[in-house]
Amino acid sequence: MTTARRVLLKNFYSPLRGLPKAPNYATSTSSVNPTEVSHFNALASTWWDPYGPSRLLHLMNPLRHEFISSCRALKPHSSSHQDLRYLDIGCGGGIFAETAGRLRTTASVTAIDPSSEVIEVAKQHAKRDPLLQTAGKLQYLNKGIEDLDTPSKPDEQYDVVSLFEVIEHISTPGIFLKRCLPYVKPGGWLVLSTIARTWTSWVTTKMVAEDIVGLVPRGTHDWSKYINESELRTFFEAQEGWGINGGMKAQGCLYAPGLGWRMVAGGEQWGNYFFGVRRDPEIR
């Protein structure tokens, strides 16, 4: 058996890889990977090209909002609360942040990303929409989560904290997730999208999407960093104060050329998927 095949099999069968422990990276104090930042810096100028390297993100964006709405509608703690506060971590060029900022139910969006070039693209693009120039409506910060002030009281926390297409680019996902948790207010949601670590996802996202068809630039993904839905569920079940009474939800999604992204029941077991977990509401 070749060394490459041994590594592949080890990653495929490794449970809770870095969730919540990642001993090989335990000395790291930052979730920011310079190689990842460099990769996305190179894509900054094309971020808002709907036919460019970020095309799949543009097409996926409506499903992000659909998934958030489905999470917030879950009972027994569903909420019609208006004036929502969003924190978009790893916002990139602002595809989700801008559309969230335009919603009538949105009070404010804070969007952060460690790439200075990508953040600058996001800021410049947002200037095209006067609505987003309203004071406090949309704020972009060139920061990683480690550099953001930790909330000291509930009104500094957020109703929705989003991590779209982020966690599969993090070397220490468990440590990173724990850093994100304090920003969610009681009753609020942490929502993310990522990719399951399966043979199917390797074929579709690496071999086909990157190497054959070129839907995304080569090197965008590292298959060994993909995270299975069961690993995320196990991680959050171990966190006190999260996900009780059905406050955890997963939904698979699939890209079909010519048709776009579609929600697919059970797809979280083998490919792209959304995952949401609610911070337990305070008992009054």
Sum this structure up briefly:
It is built from 8 helices and 8 strands, in the order αααβαβαββαβααβββ. With 284 residues, it is an alpha/beta fold.
If you had to describe this structure to a student in words, what would you say it looks like?
With 284 residues, this protein is an alpha/beta fold. 30% of the residues lie in helices and 20% in strands. The chain is built from 8 helices and 8 strands, in the order αααβαβαββαβααβββ. The chain has helices spanning 3-13, 34-41, 55-72, 95-101, 116-126, 173-180, 199-212, 229-237; strands at 84-89, 106-112, 138-141, 158-164, 184-195, 248-256, 260-264, 272-278. An 8-stranded mixed β-sheet has the order 3-2-1-4-5-8-6-7, sandwiched between helices. α5 (116-126) links the parallel β2 (106-112) and β3.
SSE blueprint:
Layout: H1 3-13, H2 34-41, H3 55-72, E1 84-89, H4 95-101, E2 106-112, H5 116-126, E3 138-141, E4 158-164, H6 173-180, E5 184-195, H7 199-212, H8 229-237, E6 248-256, E7 260-264, E8 272-278
Parallel strand pairs: 1-2, 1-4, 2-3, 4-5
Antiparallel strand pairs: 5-8, 6-7, 6-8
Percentage of β-strand residues: 15-25%
Helix content: 25-40%
Span of the ends, CA to CA? 59 Å
Average pLDDT score: 85
| Cα radius of gyration in angstroms | 18 Å
Shape: globular
Features:
8 helices, alpha/beta, 284 residues, globular, 30% helix, eight-stranded mixed β-sheet, single chain
